[in-house]
Each structure stands twice: as structure tokens, then as C-alpha cells.
Design goal:
Elements (H helix, E strand, L loop, with lengths): L32 E6 L5 H15 L4 E5 L9 H10 L2 E5 L3
Length: 96
């Protein structure tokens, strides 16, 4: 047991994190456009289906639009621009 072992700390160095404030809360979703974003995770499409059905039944005055990025785990500037230009709020569906 005279052999030395080198142990590496797997935690590494955490990045500097700068907090950002939350978006202002809407008073109501009535007559607003809500984007349901399917983030392409496992089962996220099923979650978006259920959300869409819930809003259709319980809040029919909300204009629901469904959208998904072109690729999972990759920023999609065009999708973000569409939501910012046309949407009042968004729900990101990350799956179950």
C-alpha cells in the first residue's frame, strides 16, 4: 500500500452567477397570447397537449400558440424572437 493515489475534486469551479429579476406578472391572461413551448424533452409533447386541453376548457379566452425549437439543447433565436414579438407569456414544457 505504498502507492500514492491522486484524487480529483469532481465539483470543479462553479461559474459566477448573476441574478435577474422575474418578468412582471400579468394581471390576467384573458385576451392574451400564451405560448406553450415544447422543449423537446422526453414526454414534453404530452405535457403540452394536457396544458393546451386545460386552457381550452378552463380559459377559452386565452389565445394559445404552440411552438418548439428546431433542435433540443440548442438556442433558437428565431423561436425566441417570435415569442417576444407576438406573445404575452410563455410556459416552457420540459417533460415528465
Amino acid at each position: 500500500m505504498a502507492e500514492k493515489l491522486t484524487v480529483h475534486d469532481p465539483r470543479g469551479y462553479p461559474p459566477q452567477v448573476t441574478g435577474k429579476p422575474l418578468a412582471p406578472r400579468l394581471q390576467s391572461l384573458e385576451d392574451r397570447t400564451l405560448y406553450l413551448v415544447d422543449c423537446l424533452f422526453d414526454n414534453s409533447e404530452a405535457f403540452v397537449d394536457q396544458l393546451h386541453a386545460w386552457f381550452a376548457e378552463h380559459m377559452p379566452g386565452v389565445n394559445i400558440k404552440r411552438i418548439a425549437p428546431r433542435e433540443s439543447w440548442v438556442d433558437d433565436p428565431e423561436m425566441c424572437a417570435a415569442i417576444q414579438a407576438d406573445g404575452d407569456a410563455a410556459v416552457l414544457a420540459v417533460g415528465l
